[in-house]
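Researcher: If convenient, please comment on what follows.
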Amino acid sequence: MFTNMKMLFRILPAFLVLLLWSAAAFAQQVTGVVLDRSGKPVAGVRTQVKGKPAQMLTDVDGKFALPAMGSDTIVLTKSGFATQSVAVHLGTRFRLILLPEVEQLEEVKIVSNGYQSLPVQKATGSFEQVDKKTLNRVIGTDILSRLEGVSTVQFDKRVGKSNALIIRGQSTLFANAAPLVVLDNFPYAGDISNINPNDVESITILKDAAAAAIWGVRASNGVIVITTKKGAKNRPLAISFNANVNVAAKPDPFYPPRMSSADFVDLERQLFIKGFYADDETAYNYVPISPVVELLIAQRDGKISAGDANRQISELAKHDVRDDLKKYWYRNAVSQQYALSLNGGSDKAAYFFSAGYDKNLSSLGGTYDRLNLRSDNSFYFTDRLQLDIGAYLTGSNSLAGKDDPSSLRTSGQKGLLPYAAFADAQGNPLVVLKDYRRSFVDASTAAGFQNWDYVPLEDYRNVRNETKSMDILVNAALKYKVFKGLGAELRYQLQSAQTQGEWLYGQNSYYARDLVNQYTQTNVDGTLSLPVPIGGILDATSSRLASHSFRAQLNYDLEWGENKLTALAGYEYRTDNTRNKTTRDYGYDANTQTTLPVDYVTSFFQPIYSYFIDFTIPYLNQYETLQNNNLSYFANAAYSFDDRYSLSASARKDQSNLFGVNANQKGVPLYSLGGAWTVNNEAFYHLSWLPYLKLRVSYGYSGNVDNTLSALTTIQYLGQSPLSRQINASIRNPPNPDLGWEKTGLFNIGMDFAIADNRLSGSVEYYRKQSDHLIGFSPLDLTTGVLNPATNLFQYKGNVAAMQGRGIELNLHSNNLKGAL
């Protein structure tokens, strides 16, 4: 025992020294100061010992102090700056410089094509990247509307085009002309307006074959790749909230030039003298005649004196319908947008959660509400195995307001009269000329028909047009690093979208009253019978989409010396099932939610025609199911040498159940080739005023598809025939065993440059494209029901038409503000 005590006393001093040294090491204070690029202190920088709870914010002088060990790493994070990590050296006082986040992005600019991310400096394709700063220039609910002003994108604002988006011009005649939208690596099949702009990190537009051909038959119209925000490993919780309210003034109806009411009245007088309205006076369908012309007719027939006619016409000429539109029809538009996000991560996981709410009120009184919920998580089980899981939920509700004034047309497609009045001097609603002549309307009402007056300020209150939609998107990706340079990934996405619309014309709406009157029958005894019952008319639509996408892909990266090879290959399967339904109910009572039956078979005389003609009551019920299956194989490889020369190639084969009768007719091979030369990296290059110069060239084929066509005969059931009393059907799609994909060849040559110490950069590009085998012509003319020899010949030749286009693009980028000439 004594020996043990003696040994203990010998060991104790050494143990105490070791304990004190350890305590000193644990208690070591690491101090430092954080500055920006100009040397000014940066306050509010979060400093944290990686993997430990110790953290603090820098003070007003940019200083911090943390307990750390010699093996620790300190992580510095602050919004707007690039995250920085630094190893601890005990006894050293750190002086750290934080760089802006955008500067770090500019050093190595990464673009995504939906299959891989690659540095744009080594890419051979034509890309246009739209970053967060550009996207946030404007406030809007729709992500695509924020692309206005981007040089590559054009919006077709013609009437009936719904502001369609076009990339490098039209590439098809009859198929879908919209670009392919890719959201987080998979094509997005839902309504693009469902995507919350606040969740978007960046957008990349793929323009030429080298960039887009990997998407195969859906790439000829261009590809828009949307990348959403993600969490990051080893980043503390960051909370972001933003809100904005935008108020827009009423539209100015006086902005577009228009003939004055007085000039219009003078024109009507001249046309009346020349007999222009003679046919309208005797028209079999009682077409509307303007109040001025009615007064001139009454004066001519001696029913009113010239003085009274001129006085009333002068009063009409003083009124301008644009005053009424501004006072009674339009209102200020208000849009509200709120967004909340949380993101962060640890060594084993990264997360991003967001919620967004939008509420818009249009200048015509329509409302739009949208709620977005999103979750994106990454789990790092080992250094080799990673699992990504994401979910996106969108619910929206839109309620239409008043009609656009351009749609307030008569049966003869005549617009609002310049002197039309919506209300009198006291603000009481007035009748506006609509579809029939005033004398016919008065006589019909006197005979017991429904009131046939059209009163705009009352009618819109009796119409309700509402659309509700729900979109759910779930995706998962399992990534595994087989060995250095080789990785494998499996991806799956499920998208379910439902849309329900109801267009209710109330009993007192003009549409419902007009349809009741059109089919009202006058019996021999003078009584009236109503084949279309009095009540509301309810048009209901529903659409349900279920889409499944699966992808298996291998990625390979290899570097040796000054050589670098990047390659990928994979398999993709996609199935879309869509069910559409349209129904109409007559005599609808919103209180009891009941309808009344009607006779769809019997033909009824319509009193709006002065000669005998019969019509059946409109039957609008339709049911449709669409099933599209697509199978694809793809490969892509890119090689670069010494940061000077780059070559790329891609190949893809798409197969679909829509085309061909035999299995070997259902697929189409597509490819692309590209090359790039970074001239400024050559030894002989010494132009200091042009520090960056790169030449690119590419050629390849992409395609398009019209999902409404099929190689097999399809028919459409039209209900019961009034003649045979049997189920009636028509050929919707005639047989065409040679029906194939559309193909578009695209040649592109470009030059990327930077001048003035990289303060100004841009690109100049020339492209030429030709689209062949434009599907959409049918060998059977469905209008006449006879064969059309021309289209029959073209369709079976498989090359019905060709479209050619070419253009030059100049893009300039300055101080992170993008524009185009």
